[in-house]
Amino acid sequence: MDAFEGAMLRAGAVLFVTILTAIGAQVSVPLPFTVVPFTLQPMIVLLGGAALGARLGASAQAIYLLIGLAGLPVFAASPVLPQGAARLVGPTAGFLLSYPLAAFVAGWLAERRFDRKYLTSLVAMAAGLAVIFAGGLSWLAYGPTALGLSGAVTTALTPFLAADLLKLCLAAGVLPAVWRFVGRDA
């Protein structure tokens, strides 16, 4: 494979993860007690970051945010905010804006071979998920909504933690299985 083919393959992979993130946002379940919907995005962000590596994983999420900022309907449905720039200052902005960093963290650890075994893959995914929760909770606690830390935890951590840990456990098993299948697990 020459340099051009490699670059095109990487660009295609980044675009694929960007599209998967947008699709994951459409798998959205609004919950009556919180402004934060349940989506598949965190799992896709972390898996995409681990699969693509730090820079490309973060790039896929930055492109996702830019497409959403431009007004394309890539963000989860919201009864409060329209698609577009308002989402990046609304109640879920902290979660959304943390996606590039979360993908970078999961990718950085994967580049250090954390993606080869289930337990280390789980560590890489958990580190990325911690970034997502830190961004989202900080924004809800101290941003425009100013719920305070207790309010943010009640609104955006407690209702999601069990489901996100389950998604994390599923995502952590994907790459080690893929690497074993293609013979690159060592």
Written description of the protein model:
- There is one protein chain.
- The protein is mainly alpha-helical and 186 residues long.
- It has one domain (3-182): Arp2/3 complex 21 kDa subunit ARPC3, CATH 1.10.1760.
- The protein contains seven helices and two strands; from the N terminus they run αββαααααα.
- The chain has a two-stranded antiparallel sheet.
Please tell me the CATH architecture by its name. Answer: Orthogonal Bundle
Count of the domains: 1
Question: How many β-strand runs?
Answer: 2
> What would CATH call the class?
Mainly Alpha
Oligomer: single chain
| Number of helices in the DSSP assignment | 7
Work out the helicity level.
55-70%
Major sheet: size, sense and barrel closure? 2 strands, antiparallel
General shape: globular
The computed structural class is: mainly alpha
Order of helices and strands: HEEHHHHHH
List keywords for this structure.
186 residues, mainly alpha, Arp2/3 complex 21 kDa subunit ARPC3, two-stranded antiparallel sheet, 7 helices
